[in-house]
Design brief:
Length: about 160
Amino acid sequence: MKAFAAWLIHRLELPPGWMLAFAAIAWAQAQVLPFTVLGVAGDVIGGALVLAGLAVSGWAALHFILERTSLIPRTRPNTLVTRGMYRFSRNPIYLSDTAILLGLILYWDALLCLPLVPLYMKVIEWRFIHREEAVLRDHFGEEFEAYAARVRRWL
C-alpha cells in the first residue's frame, strides 16, 4: 500500500495542484477576513493577471506540443524548447501559474495571502524546477548550459 501511495503521489503531484492549494488558502482567507483596500482596481488587475496567466500558459504549452515533447514534470523531454516564450523565461508555465495565483489573491481581496506568491515560487523551484533542470542538464549537456546562461529561470 505504501508503494502504491508513493507511486500515486509521484504521478498526481503536479504544479497546478500546488497552485490550486495555495489559491484555496487565499480564498479561505478572503471568506474569513477580506481586505477590500484595492476595490475595483484589485478586481481589474487580478482578473487581468488571471487571464494573462491562462494565455501565457496555453501559448507556452503549445510550444511543447509543436516540438512533440512532454509537458509533464519528471519525464525526460526529447527536445529542448528554447523558442517563443522560452527565449525570455525557462519556466513560462510556472510563471503563468504564479501570475494566476497573484491575480486570484488580488481579485478575492485576500491581501494577507500575498506572501504565498513567493512561497509558491520557492515550492515550485524545490519540488520541480531543480529536478527538471538536472534532467535537462544530463540529457542536453552544453546545449542546456548555454540556454541557462542566456535565459533566466523566471524572468
